[in-house]
Amino acid sequence: MATERTLSILKPDATRRNLTGKINAVFEEAGLRIIAQKRLQLSQTQAEAFYGAHRERGFFKDLVGFMVGGPVVVQVLEGEDAIAQNRKLMGATNPANADAGTIRKLFAESIEANSVHGSDSAEAAAHEIGFFFAGTEIVG
Ligand code: ADP
Ligand code: MG
Q: Which of 27, 57, 52 lies closest to 127 in space, CA to CA?
């Protein structure tokens, strides 16, 4: 295992319910370090670009609408095997299928309003971190 960085987003359903600290505590208690973080209101253009890989999916329009519906917190997490570790902490996309104790089982409202995003590969992590952060904003 190597030290990795991954891009995490606390989605609008999480910020609306004041869950930033509770979700960050899950990351930190698992040993992931939050080495960059900012709260943003995504524009329609940003949300469409970020989820561009899902453009052809039936839920794309709703997903973009949800992601621009309130503030998000974007963050870079660093740690051993951070990409897979974060995906494990997040749980399955659909909270109904998520393991006990995962963020989505604990907090998600629905398959769409599922509280968190996490990069799913090293390539995605590099792209997604660069999408939101300048190198000078990341302090490891
Ligand atoms: P994940 O976030 O677990 O990597 P995906 O990349 O497949 O999941 O999907 C991106 C996001 O799109 C999900 O986190 C969720 O917010 C939304 N989404 C995925 N599948 C559906 C669906 N069937 N209906 C509504 N929204 C969905
Ligand atoms: Mg995904």
A: 52
Ligand 2 geometric centre to CA of 109 (Å): 17
Query: What pLDDT sits at residue 1?
Result: 77
Identify the active-site residue in 5, 11, 104, 117: 117
Question: Could you report how far apart the first and last alpha carbons of the chain are, in Å?
Answer: 18
Alpha carbon of 53 to ligand 2 centroid (Å): 9
> Helix, strand, coil shares of the chain as percentages rounded to 5?
45, 20, 35
| Token reading at 122 | 């090293």
Is 114's C-beta closer than 6 angstroms to any atom of ligand 1? yes
What is the chain's mean pLDDT, rounded? 98
Residue 85 Cα distances to 65, 73, 115, 119, angstroms: 28, 19, 17, 11
